[in-house]
Design brief:
Layout (H helix, E strand, L loop, with lengths): L1 E4 L2 H11 L8 E4 L15 H15 L15 H14 L5 E6 L2 H11 L9 E6 L4 E2 L5 E2 L12 H4 L4 E2 L2 H17 L3 E6 L2 E5 L5 H5 L7 E2 H11 L6 H13 L3 E5 L7 E5 L7
Parallel strand pairs: 1-2, 1-3, 3-4
Antiparallel strand pairs: 4-7, 5-6, 8-9, 10-12, 11-12
Helix pairs in contact: 4-6
Length: about 270
């Protein structure tokens, strides 16, 4: 059995569940790119793959994750090629795709399953769509991430496993192609598996709400954003947007404009909230 997840924290959470239920035991593969942001045009072609890499290089340059695109640490296309090769060499192997109701997992699901149609019948989905679980304090909650589920609750979650249907293999890749062709930069989850798209500046207005008239370290700014905002994205993406707003003269900055701990920002004195 092969388990596929879309967030790094999911890996550790799933490994803990193996200790409680040996029937879950299997290899865990993480899809590492965040397909909820960035370009998707011709995403399965060499030119589309390289265009996305080039976009990420621009996002990460001079920041905390500079150069990461070219280290080989993130190569999901290679991961999928190896996965398909493994499945073809072992006709008894199956895949469980784990996804919670968040834009990151759902975007990753569409990207992944669009490449696995030839394996129909051997691919299962476990989608936590508004389903109740019990947290460590014994309270009912509705997780939006796989890693939020306590290990013992994975025993319940595994009952959700079902084959991805032939119909889904027909319809979902078409939906992903439609999203890709819209050429937008941000995807959010409207409900179920419904993604809607926005321009690259989607998070700017919300981020501006946490920038004050006083100097503030960027890492503290991001902490406030992640703690209080309903819609969030990765810190690398936010840092890129922040630097663009500085370059456009929308906010002031002091220090070396590199990583999240290297500089401070504040609102311009004449700033008028939108």
């Amino acid at each position: 059995m092969i388990h596929i997840v879309f967030q790094h924290a999911d890996v550790a959470a799933m490994k803990k569940s193996f200790e409680l239920d040996e029937t879950l035991n299997g290899d865990i593969i993480e899809i590492k790119d965040d397909f909820a942001v960035g370009p998707l045009v011709d995403i399965f072609s060499e030119s589309g793959i390289e265009a996305r890499k080039q976009w990420w290089r621009g996002v990460l340059v001079g920041g905390d994750y500079a150069g990461k695109v070219d280290t080989g640490e993130v190569d999901d296309n290679k991961t999928v090629d190896e996965l398909i090769e493994r499945m073809n060499s072992d006709p008894e192997e199956i895949i469980w795709i784990w996804a919670a109701q968040n834009k990151h997992d759902v975007s990753g699901y569409y990207w992944l399953m669009s490449q696995l149609k030839d394996l129909q019948g051997r691919i299962f989905i476990l989608y936590l769509n508004n389903l109740p679980f019990i947290n460590d304090k014994g309270h009912i909650f509705y997780p939006t991430n796989i890693f939020e589920i306590p290990a013992k609750e994975f025993l319940k979650a595994k009952k959700l496993a079902r084959q991805i249907t032939l119909s889904e293999f027909e319809v979902d890749p078409d939906e992903w192609t439609k999203l890709s062709n819209e050429n937008k930069g941000v995807r959010t989850l409207e409900g179920g598996k419904k993604l809607i798209q926005h321009d690259y500046d989607y998070y700017d207005a919300e981020l501006l709400k946490f920038i004050t008239p006083d100097w503030q370290k960027v890492n503290k700014l991001f902490h406030s954003f992640f703690s209080k905002s309903k819609e969030t994205t990765g810190d690398a993406y936010l840092l890129w947007r922040l630097k663009l707003m500085i370059a456009e003269g929308k906010i002031d900055a002091q220090g070396e404009i590199k990583g999240m701990k290297d500089f401070e920002v504040k609102l311009k004195e004449n700033y008028l909230a939108p």
